[in-house]
Specification:
alpha+beta, Nuclear Transport Factor 2, Chain: A, globular, 26% strand, 4-stranded antiparallel beta sheet, 96 residues, 33% helix
Length: 96
């Protein structure tokens, strides 16, 4: 294998790995509704806390989701994406 081909193959492999890694962690699409139809973010978080969640980080994603990182009522680590309009869970990762 010549040096130029090997370098091209290595660059392609690295580019592919980075591209696929980015796709794997992309947040879901939660809603297309305008933000004036979303639940109030502070009230939404307060309601989650009343359900026993401990929120370490709360954010609005590029996919128009409310996303939390923290712990559920059982103390398990969670990452949950919510539809900000109706509060439904769109995607969740819960520690086992």
């Amino acid at each position: 294998m010549n040096h130029s081909f090997r370098r091209t193959l290595t660059a392609f492999t690295l580019f592919s790995a980075v591209a696929f890694a980015g796709m794997a962690v992309a947040s879901p699409k939660c809603t297309d509704e305008s933000q004036d139809k979303w639940q109030n973010a502070e009230t939404f978080q307060e309601n989650l806390k009343k359900q026993g969640y401990k929120i370490k980080r709360f954010q609005i994603t590029d996919g128009n989701c409310y996303e939390i990182y923290g712990w559920d009522e059982a103390g398990k680590k969670v990452e949950i994406y919510f539809n900000p309009v109706d509060g439904s869970v769109v995607k969740s990762n819960i520690e086992k």
